[in-house]
């Protein structure tokens, strides 16, 4: 039952998106939702681990600072009360679940392999950054 509700929500959402895109005269060649990339999420994490880009910590997997940038410029550090502390990009939660970061990485990987674009512009809102 949950899956059928989810599929109906996708359909209803797409109808609304299409209405807005039509008003803006925006057309898409391809439209793949977030769930399209679910089969590759585990592969993304495994690849990051194998390449030494991510590491496990407290049951989760994240990308941590490698110390190569000054703290102020390092996206994986945050200043709290005058002290720079790790702020990793989690790619697998300790419960085994994935998040927007993992899905975004799988999306970019798929697009690079499928279409070999010269450039990809990625825009997310604050809740996903």
Could you explain how this protein is built, in words?
This protein starts with a helix and ends in a 14-residue tail after the last helix. The protein has a 3-stranded antiparallel beta sheet. The protein folds into 2 domains: 1-31; 36-117, no CATH class. The model has no long low-confidence stretch (mean pLDDT 95). 37% of the residues lie in helices and 15% in strands. A hairpin with a 2-residue loop joins strand 1 (55-57) and strand 2 (60-63). It is globular, with a radius of gyration of 18 Å. It contains 3 helices and 5 strands, in the order H-H-E-E-E-E-E-H. The chain is an alpha+beta fold and 129 residues long.
Strands, helices and their partners?
Layout: H1 2-23, H2 41-50, E1 55-57, E2 60-63, E3 77-80, E4 83-86, E5 89-92, H3 100-115
Antiparallel strand pairs: 1-2, 2-5, 3-4
Mean pLDDT: 95
The strands making up the biggest β-sheet line up spatially as 1-2-5
Structural class: alpha+beta
The low-confidence parts are none
Count of DSSP E strands?
Answer: 5
Shape: globular
Count of individual helical segments:
3
- Helical percentage: 25-40%
Cα gyration radius (Å): 18 Å
* Pattern of helices and strands: HHEEEEEH
Number of domains: 2
Main sheet characteristics: 3 strands, antiparallel
Binned strand content:
5-15%
Terminal-residue CA separation = 32 Å
Summarize the structure.
With 129 residues, this protein is of the alpha+beta class. Helices cover 37% and strands 15% of the residues.
């Amino acid at each position: 039952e949950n899956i059928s509700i989810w599929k109906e929500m996708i359909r209803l959402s797409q109808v609304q998106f299409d209405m807005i895109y039509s008003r803006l005269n925006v057309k898409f060649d391809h439209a793949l939702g977030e769930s399209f990339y679910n089969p590759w999420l585990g592969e993304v994490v495994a690849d990051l681990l194998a390449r030494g880009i991510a590491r496990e910590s407290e049951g989760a997997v994240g990308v941590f600072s490698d110390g190569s940038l000054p703290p102020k410029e390092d996206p994986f550090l945050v200043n709290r009360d005058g002290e720079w502390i790790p702020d990793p990009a989690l790619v697998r939660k300790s419960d085994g679940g994935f998040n927007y970061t993992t899905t975004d990485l799988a999306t970019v990987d798929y697009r690079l392999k499928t279409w070999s674009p010269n450039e990809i512009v990625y825009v997310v809102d604050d809740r996903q950054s």
